[in-house]
Amino acid sequence: MADDWLNIALRFALYVDLTILFGVSLFGAYALRPDHRSSAIARRYVCAIGVAAASGIVLSLWSIVVTAKAMTGAAKYAELTSHVFGMMLSSTAVGIGWMVRIAALAACLIIAMCVRRRQTLPFSIFAVLGAVALATVAWAGHGAMDDGSRGYVHITADIAHLLAAGAWVGSLTAFVLLARTPQAASLESVEILNHTSNGFARLGTLIVATLLATGVVNYLLIVGPTIDGLATSAYGVLLLAKLAMFGLMLGLASANRYLLSPQLEIAMRSGDHAGAVMTLRRSLITEASLAVIILALVAWLGVLSPPGT
């Protein structure tokens, strides 16, 4: 039982870490204008990317040990040998995915350490590496449970779902970092916040559409075209809770897009933007908190059997 909770905790930590890594990188690549990429917030994003990459390596090392113990049925961690890890890393999808993730995270960390003081920051490279690292998580969940053509559809849908979630969670993290900087009240920071919050609308629509479409596909592949047991099984109850949190996030995102962002733009023109920034900040922090709860639920769902199995 203790190992089960440790596995859930590690899955949750990895979800948070890798979504931040990918999402902040993607945000920097598409939302920041070239003249913003030499700003203090851009360097803060690179710092966050470096920390996420280093944390991801540590968490991945820890998780492979826990996974090896679970897969071999060993009673104690001391029973695990180098031969066990060698077989696991070379012969299983989980192990191969793990090695790909470690390579992507190590590349992210090295690049982040080398470019911290450069004027032009390679957010696009970080985003690609972050996407690779996040995608590897799919091979440790329900997405890897099918074979053949069904398996390819399932893993593809799972990866798309992960990347869409990462883009949303990471962008929220980037917004919160921007709104909470000590210089957040400065005209430059407010201008970046206003520009990026308006620019996020187009990507936000694509993210929501992808999450909904891939969520339906994953449900059909995991549970099937039925709602039997949805309200009586642990898996179903957690899934319903996840959907409720997702609905709340959609409501907050809509308020940010159609109410708070326009208010910030109006406040900027009047020169009195402090109140609008504070209101938007609170909404973003609330939305990010809901995202963290959803990731915790997803981590828990990943170790449960769906109803009927």
From TrEMBL:
Xref: Pfam families: CopD (PF05425)
Signal peptide start and end residues: none
Membrane topology value: Multi-pass membrane protein
Gene Ontology, cellular component aspect: plasma membrane
Domain annotation Copper resistance protein D: ranges: 197-301
Cellular compartments annotated: Cell membrane
Transmembrane segments: 12-33, 45-65, 85-114, 121-139, 159-179, 200-222, 234-260, 284-303
GO biological process, one term: copper ion transport
Major subcellular site: membrane
Keywords: Cell membrane, Membrane, Transmembrane, Transmembrane helix
Protein name: Copper resistance D domain protein
Species annotation: Ralstonia pickettii (strain 12J)
